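To assess whether ligand presence alters the predicted conformation, the chain was also submitted together with copper (II) ion. Input:
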Amino acid sequence: MNARTVLAGIALFAAACGGGGGSSGGSTPTGPTGGGPQTTTINITAAGVSQQQVRIEVGQQVQFSNNAARNVEIQSDPHNVHDLCPPLNVGTMTPGQSRMTNTFSVRGTCTYHDHTNADDGRFRGSILVGVTEPGPAPDYRTSQ
Ligand SMILES: [Cu+2]
């Protein structure tokens, strides 16, 4: 008897919660795909990077996915210095591996290359951060 009373109470409580949530109304349901920040992915294959030019907003990140059959090392330009756009220095990715950049916090055009293949234009690309046309690079050195 006691156990049944407790179970009945739980059922009532659950029903009350469900009903209460529905009747309170007014709040927009937040679905997992509804209006949240979307991730821009740059796909790397044997043919190069795709898309070679992407646009994001300040405060966003980009994901690189290495679908090539070799290691790829994405680094910010210029080659061997890699200080133009530090958030995108994601480093070496093995085949099948994906990496998120850090957050791009400064507006401007970030360009990158595959450090292991730096002269191959197919493995170069640009990320337009908060701008609509390619232009000057962000200046991370004076803004931080
Ligand atoms: Cu390099």
